Amino acid sequence: MRLLEISRPQPGRAPSDVVRTFVFMANLEAQEASGDAAASVTAEQVLTRLKGSAESDVALFALVDDTVTPILAPTGELGYGLLAATGSDTDVEVAGFLLISLPLLEDTDLAELDVTLDAQYLPLPGEKMDDQARAIRDELLSHGRKIAATHFDRRRFVVFTDVSEPAPPAPFRPAVTLTTTAMAVPENDVPVAADAVFLQGFGARSEYAPQIAELLSQASADIDNGELDLAPQSWDTRRLEEAAARLRDRGDRQLLTLLVQGGEVLALSEITLRADPTTQVAELGMTTTKRARRGRGLARRALTQAIARLRREYPRVETMYASAAGTDDASQALYAPYRPRTIDVARGWVATG
Ligand SMILES: CC(C)(COP(=O)(O)OP(=O)(O)OC[C@H]1O[C@@H](n2cnc3c(N)ncnc32)[C@H](O)[C@@H]1OP(=O)(O)O)[C@@H](O)C(=O)NCCC(=O)NCCS
User: Fold this and answer.
1) Residues with CB under 6 A from ligand 1
2) What is the extent of the structural domain holding 309?
3) N or C, which end of the chain is more exposed by having fewer CB within 10 Å?
4) Which residue from 253, 270, 258 is spatially nearest to 193, judged by alpha carbons?
5) Residue 177 domain flag
């Protein structure tokens, strides 16, 4: 087996076969894990991620079987053979992919490693991962740690696995359980509250931008991440603008709902979804209340207003998804009235050194 790197995409060119293979495998895995066809990504979204952003960079690798046909590939900057992300490329037999995500603003000592195995190694629902698949996964994780440490100076490594998967090898230790739930959009009408303000794209260009940034900074410091030990994010107006631009780039839309009284933003709730008006699914993102105003039902009301707006603007959306740490009681309390159904449980592992 040989590890090859996938190059950066060239603007305006179509995704290569190897990127399409990655998308196919990632979607198969996501759908098997969640049982839901909506849990999928497109090749264009992957190309957008491969470009990197101000917030995080990525590197994508493929473990390929080159025993039958030796692969001729130019060597990239990291010392691995390069496969093109766009245009035509070499036909390769991929056993698994490794996506390394590198945060650039906070947690700059951390790398998230994400392994996607070829369909032949994916355990059938309810079955255990076999030894061969596990060996490929562990080989990719070991490459990932080495590459992230050597080339990107990372010292902490995070990996998420399905709860049914065997534990990744030492020194990885469990740090968080992440539960994804699906909820039906409620059918009842909710009147628009007098203090509700509806924005898009993080409200980056609105008069409330500085307060939105302040609320998001507080929320990221206070949210339950289990023992992942993530640094709080420090938001400002510029970061809101960059995040909004990334959303647009991905073809997504963010509905941001605020509760504002006397010019003060008390709470917010964000929902993201594909900009395509025919989309049927949406993701509940951050709901948060200003620290000094908590414990008075504001988060509940912000979420209710956000969902009512989603229903008005996107009547076709039927299902809402949300992810939260298993220990996050506040999220569970917030979502409980919408009768969440667990569709996926993942475990986050951390290794240092
Ligand atoms: C969690 C948070 C949004 C709650 O805001 P709030 O305005 O105090 O919440 P509300 O008063 O509207 O309470 C909503 C429900 O959550 C429950 N709740 C609030 N904080 C809680 C906590 N820390 N632990 C357990 N339950 C909590 C309340 O009891 C209430 O449940 P109930 O209606 O069944 O009684 C706020 O603490 C916060 O911004 N935290 C950081 C961001 C975060 O964790 N967001 C949640 C995930 S998106």
Assistant:
1) 219, 222-223, 267, 286-289, 294-300, 329-331, 333-334
2) 183-346
3) C
4) 258
5) no
